[in-house]
Amino acid sequence: MIKTAVISLTVLVTLTGCAHTPESPIVDTPVEMAVAADEVSSAPHFDHAMRRTMEAYDSTGMVAAVQVDGQLVYLDAAGLAEEGTNRPVTQDMLFPIASISKAFTTTALAILVDRGEVEWDAPIRTYIPEFAMWDPWVSENFTVRDALTHRSGLPLGAGDLLIWPDGNAEPDDVIAALQHLRPSSGFRSEYAYDNLLYIVAGEIVARVSGQSWTEFVTQEILLPVGMDQCAADKPLISAGAPVVSGHERAAGAEDGVPTDPRIDFSTTWAAAGGLWCPAGEMMEWGQFWLDGGVTADGVRLISEGQARELWQGVTPQSPRGGLRAAGSTNLAMYALGWSIHDFEGTLAVGHGGGAPGVVSNFLILPEYDAVIFSATNDYRGAASAFNYHVASALVGAPENDFIADWGAAFAAAEARGVEQISDTLVAPETAQPHALSLADYVGTYRDPWYGDVVISQTEDGSLYIDMGRSEVLDGALTHYDGNRFAAFWPDSSLKADAFVDFTVEDGEVTLVTMQAISSLTDFSYDFHDLRLEPVAGRE
């Protein structure tokens, strides 16, 4: 996934940051490191840091890599690739890097910009004529750059239920749905992370190049950069390659369980978060950027101007809370597929990623010629804690213990979320009876961007909800209070149980809305964006 949010809750956090000016080089002369390059492998105690991180987050498994001055100074793996087996995480194991993939999409577009086939500030309708947003003026003026910088005016994660956790939407479905998603802020006025517009961006790559996004990224980026083992989509992973299993756990559970295969990212996700890579090859990706868009073989894939463009901040962000509390950062911006911010007085460029049961983090410190990547096969923020702990050591700020501080914050947030879920398992003492007979809630309800949701009755007379696009989000409805019911999905590890509220007027249901019960629920379960109205002629 590919997504961003508060680390202690949904852990899909992109790195925040400040921008280089357009005139400044991508990589300045490296400053004198706090730790000399030939000592760097031992001084920050990377191995100890990774094991501390795994303990703080109770991780099933983890992989990490650090490169300084073009030298791989650390690469290791620990833990299990899959709970309940003896299969270990290995250094060459492929992890889904989720939203870190967004920078590959912007790089693909930069290649097309260099070729004169795409313009950053051209309206999307130049390439996708049927593209439309809620507002007609916005539809006409929405540019390629707008699609990449999370300033659309849509709310956080808007429309992700089309493809999350196992939504069946195709790119054409995503494009058709956008015009029905209600904005929550003015166009270009606020930062709100999204995935759907990166799917649109991937469609631009496909329509302009005549190749699929996966084909283009593989041939034009992965292979030239030297990322031979990476796959632009899970079905493209080489036979026999070691692949990690993601893990989720029900609220309060001791151990993670392998995620349901049905929630693996579909190909529709590819441009927003589809890549799978081993940790070592992420160092190749980092070095490519430290070299300003030039491969290890000396081939320039994108011009110097476009390399600068992708790291130029566009949309202001709120600095990440944990970093700001530590006094490590003050400014943050989202560029083209990258988050950039100041970190202990130096530039930091990177991104985080969240896939089903896997969280990753990628960080470049250009002035220190350093690249850091880590990933864990649990849906929790261990990767960010490790990366910033190591970054602190590299820049000479060891007083910040992000592993301890963020690990404790995560544990506290987890405890609050567990309590929220526990509180809903029993209806409140003041609960009111439902206004209608259960049969009167039955019917098909439709949202114009999502599609149909069906409420039915089982043989024992209880209500059942079928979310239409999803197989894993189908389950019994339990009465909670008045016209509010609760959907407790069969897979409790999703931590995505939801309230289902029926608006009743004149003895009939006129609207159904939903909202997540717990703060642990990932923002891509955007139930709150649904406005389900009864379909005419429903039973």
From TrEMBL:
Peptidase S12 Pab87-related C-terminal domain segment(s): 428-533
Keyword Signal: yes
Keywords, in A-Z order: Hydrolase, Signal
Residues in the signal sequence: 1-19
Single GO molecular function: hydrolase activity
InterPro entries according to UniProt: AmpC-like, Beta-lactam-related, Beta-lactam/transpept-like, Peptidase_S12_Pab87-rel_C
Keyword Iron part of the UniProt annotation: no
Residue ranges annotated for the Beta-lactamase-related domain, each copy included: 46-383
PROSITE patterns in the cross-refs: PROKAR_LIPOPROTEIN
Protein name per the record: Serine hydrolase
Species of origin: Aurantiacibacter sediminis
Lineage: Bacteria, Pseudomonadati, Pseudomonadota, Alphaproteobacteria, Sphingomonadales
